[in-house]
Every structure is written in C-alpha cells, then in structure tokens.
Design brief:
- The complex is a heterodimer of chains A (269) and B (126).
- Chain A has 269 residues and is of the alpha/beta class.
- Helix content of chain A is 52%, strand content 16%.
- Chain A is built from seven helices and ten strands.
- In chain A, strand 4, helix 4 and strand 5 form a beta-alpha-beta unit.
- With 126 residues, chain B is α/β, with parallel strands linked by helices.
- Chain B has five helices and five strands; from the N terminus they run E-H-E-H-E-H-E-H-E-H.
- Chain B has a five-stranded parallel sheet, sandwiched between helices.
- The chains are: A alpha/beta (269), B alpha/beta (126).
- Chains A and B meet through helix 5 of A and helix 1 of B.
Chain lengths: 269, 126
C-alpha cells in the first residue's frame, strides 16, 4: 500500500484483516518513490495506491503505476471527486478502485466479493491446469498406444517382406513375359476384352517374384482396368524396367487411368 | 552332428507370432510358439530351448515377470532371454536387463538382427 494518510491506511489494513485474516501481509509506504522501489525489488499480489501522494499526484501516479500493473493487481485509492478518473484507471489496466470516505459496509462487501472472485478465478486456473496436465498425460498415452499398435503390423510386414525376398523365384524376362503378358493376354482375350501387350523390359532383366502370385496380381489389375475403363473393354499392358523407382505417377493424355505396380528385380550388367 | 537351435517364442500378438515362427523356421531353427506369459513359462520349462524370444506387454503375466521367474528357477536360469517389444527401447532396455534379459529388440525388428542375436546367445548347438 502506498498511502500517505495514516487514517486511510488504517482503514485499508482493517479491511484486509477482516477479509483475509493472517493470510494477507500488508507492507505500507507513504511516498510513491519508496513504494515503487519495493515494487521493483519484491513480489506483491495486490497494490493499493493513493493517487494523491506527496511526491506524485493524480494522472502522474497512474502513469507510474501502469508498468507494474501486469505483475500485481492494482487497486486505486481515490477521493470522491476523482471517482471518474478512477473509473478510467480501472479500464487502463488497474483492477479496482476504492473511494476514500466511502469505505463503508458496502465497500467491504465489494472487497469481499472481489477477493472471493479472485479466489474463484485462481481455483478455476488450478482446475484448468490440472485438466491440461491430464490431457497431456492422455495424449502421451494415446501416442504410446498408437506407436504400439503400429509397431505390430510393421513387424508383420517387415517379417513377411523378408521371407518373400528370401524365397522369391527369380524370373528372367523370357519367363516373365510368358507368365505375365502372354498368359494374361490369352486369358482376357477369351473373355472378349480387347487387350494389347507390349514388352519393353531391358535385356537380362530378372524379377524376384512368385510366378503364380504375380500372374494373379496382374490379372486383378487388368480386371480392374477393364471394369473402370470408360472407353469399353480395351486394355494396354506393358512391361518395362524402371530401375531405382518404386512409385510413379503418369497422367494419361486424353484421360483414363494407368495402373502401375513395381516388382523387385535386377538387370544383369 | 549339429542339431538346430531351439527357440521358444512368447508373444500375445498372433500375427507377430506367426511371422516370427516363419522367419525362424526359414532360418532352420526348431521353433515352438505360445501366446501367453504363464503358458510360456511352462513351455520353456518343458522344452529347455537354447533361446527364448519374449514380448513384454502381455495380458496376465507380462514378459518381465516371466523372465524374473525363469531366472529365479535354477533349471531355466541359464536360458538366454531376448525381449522383443513394441515399447520404446530407452524406457525398457534397463528394466529388461535388470530382470535378467540378455538382449533387447524393438518391433519392428530386422530379421537379420534377430538371427544374429539368437545365434550369438544360443551358440552353436553340439
């Protein structure tokens, strides 16, 4: 409290005792400079400040108090003729004002409400902190569970990929052409599909794949191509080597879809 | 004459067990699998394998408890246990070692890494 009038200071002290009892400690200075010095060096929760002090008056006091308004709740003590000014002070960053000579039961009630409101706000803050901590904990659990759930299928994929690669047939391009293109061509031609196949694989290309499964995959893809082809059942199938590539997107002139899939393999050098 | 390494796999995830079994068999190990901690404990006592692959998070008796019991039983205390878990490695490696685990692999593991660890711990069977 920065207040030069000892009578006013006593009233504030009594009010604080009544509302907070032992839980509030009041530090009292009579000059603004001394009060400002303490504000800079110590931590306070609330500042009661008289606007008319021996070393600082009115708006000047308000301006000097403003830098502290973030760290402490500022309650301006003012005379009744300055009430309008105090109202402005409240909107300018201070939390409340008390009009001297009117510190009556009504004011006490308001102060109590104020303190209760503040307590409620702190309670709410503590509550939301706890909720936030709980949410953070839940999020952590979710991530752990998600990671756990992803690691299992990843293990399965990785394991089967290894088994497939270790046990895959090696199909040279002659065999591949027969297994893939010729057989698929005859199969779909028999179903009335206009299908044309083209082999553009490099000389010496070797595929690592199970012949029958590869044929089934290709039959599926061609089947889909037939089903979704807007121009009717006409399908082009081509095989080519695409070293170093795993995924490719090729827009097709004039619309339509290109189904592409890649088979691991190698090209003899 | 060499007999193949015998490995027991204890994991509650059936897909993981299936692929692990295939991997181990493709490598030529004799492989026995089981889907729970308590059953795993019994299986190890009955089979006396060269290496145990043990999941940590399982309903009922978890892997850490299975390992503790294997290590406190003199019949099975010398069987090396490799923990294979989906848990974060840094969180669990220490705990795994403290209950007597010999190795630790995080899912998804590299099959070659698994084989190397099994062969290092299981040794070449006579």
């Amino acid at each position: 409290m920065i207040e030069d009038n000892l009578g006013d200071a006593r009233l504030i002290r009594e009010m604080l005792d009544e509302v907070f009892g032992d839980s509030a400690v009041l530090v009292h200075e009579r000059m603004f400079a001394d009060g400002a010095n303490r504000l800079e060096n110590e931590q306070f929760d609330v500042l009661f400040v008289d606007l008319a002090l021996p070393d600082s008056q009115g708006l000047e006091t308000l301006d000097k108090v403003r830098p502290f308004a973030g760290a402490v709740s500022v309650v301006v003590l003012t005379r009744s003729e300055d009430e309008e000014r105090a109202e402005k002070a409240v909107s300018g960053g201070t939390q409340d004002y008390l009009v001297k000579g009117k510190i009556t039961p009504a004011i006490r009630a308001r102060s109590i409400r104020y303190s209760l409101g503040r307590n409620a706000a702190e309670e709410a803050l503590r509550g939301s902190e706890a909720a936030l901590a709980r949410q953070a904990e839940e999020l952590k659990d979710l991530v752990t569970v998600a990671a756990h759930e992803l690691r299992h299928p990843a293990t399965v994929f990785k394991g089967y990929s290894y088994i497939l690669l270790e046990n895959a047939d090696c199909l040279d391009s002659e065999v591949a052409r027969d297994a893939l293109l010729n057989r698929v061509e005859s199969e779909f031609k028999a179903q009335g599909v206009r299908i044309s196949t083209r082999d553009e694989t490099e000389e010496g290309a070797v595929l690592m794949a199970d012949r029958e499964k590869l044929r089934a995959v290709l039959a599926n893809l061609v089947g889909n191509a037939v089903k979704f082809s807007p121009a009717g059942p006409a399908v082009d199938v081509s095989a080519e080597t695409a070293l170093g590539e795993w995924i490719r997107h090729r827009p097709r002139a004039g619309g339509g879809s290109i189904f592409e899939f890649f088979i691991p393999g190698s090209v003899a050098t | 004459m060499n007999r193949p390494l015998k490995v027991v796999v204890i994991d509650d995830d059936r897909e993981v067990v299936k692929v692990t079994e295939l991997l181990l068999k493709s490598r030529g190990y004799e492989t026995v699998v089981v889907h729970g901690g308590a059953a795993g404990l019994e299986l190890v006592r009955g089979q006396m394998p060269d290496v145990v692959l043990l999941d940590i998070m399982m309903p009922g008796m978890d892997g850490l408890e299975v390992c503790r019991r294997l290590k406190s039983d003199e019949r099975t205390s010398s069987v090396p246990v490799i923990f294979v878990t989906a848990l974060d490695a840094c969180e669990c490696a220490e705990t795994a070692t403290s209950v007597g685990g010999s190795g630790f692999l995080t899912k998804p593991f590299q099959p070659t890494e698994l084989f190397a660890m099994i062969e290092e711990l299981g040794g070449t069977a006579p």
